[in-house]
Automatic annotation (TrEMBL):
This is Ig-like domain-containing protein. InterPro entries: Ig-like_dom, Ig-like_dom_sf, Ig-like_fold. Keywords: Membrane, Transmembrane, Transmembrane helix. It comes from Chelydra serpentina (Snapping turtle). Residues 5-91 form the Ig-like domain. The keyword Transmembrane applies. The chain crosses the membrane at residues 120-144.
Length: 169
């Protein structure tokens, strides 16, 4: 950890499958150009990049393996004019949890789906229910007409009765 302020860290996926790739992104906002950007897992360096002038966001694509679960973060360094290296604090960590392997054919439980997967499932269920409702309405109407229940019971009697009243006066 250093004296410079922490960068902003972004992790595009927190529950990937084994074999997936996740995007780690480190945004450095400093008056001096970062000379090196470091990506960490549980505080240990896993990758670094040389800093470039006028570049503020650095990307690292990390292929996920079973041992990839952990707290990910990033930091940066700035080399001073006297060749002293000044480091930043680590960014606030984001936890990455590997949910399992897509190709495993074992009899274990499937991991709980979250985020985008769950919202797609809910969207599909809603669409299915609306479609079922739209298809069933004409079928129910047809069945009621076929049985002669197109008009509510007692409506004909009311009409006939009202005609008699009008006709009688």
């Amino acid at each position: 950890t250093g004296a410079l302020p922490a960068p902003i860290f972004y992790l595009n996926q927190t529950f990937p499958w084994e074999g997936d790739s996740v995007l780690l992104q480190c945004s450095v906002f400093s008056q001096a150009t970062a000379t090196r950007v470091v990506f960490c897992n549980d505080g240990e360096e896993i990758s670094s990049q040389r800093g470039l002038e006028e570049k503020f966001t650095y990307n690292y694509v990390h292929e996920v393996s079973w041992g990839s679960s952990g707290n990910y973060s990033c930091a940066y360094e700035i080399k001073q004019s006297n060749n002293w290296v000044n480091g930043s604090q680590l960014s606030p960590a984001k936890y990455l949890s590997v949910t399992g392997s897509r190709s495993s054919s074992g009899g274990g439980e499937e991991p709980t789906r979250t985020g985008l997967d769950m919202s797609l499932i809910i969207w599909a269920a809603r669409c299915t229910l609306v479609l079922l409702l739209l298809v069933s309405a004409p079928i129910i109407t047809f069945m009621l007409e076929k049985r002669g229940l197109s008009e509510p019971a007692g409506l004909e009697e009311t009409r006939v009765g009202s005609i008699r009243i009008v006709g009688g006066s």
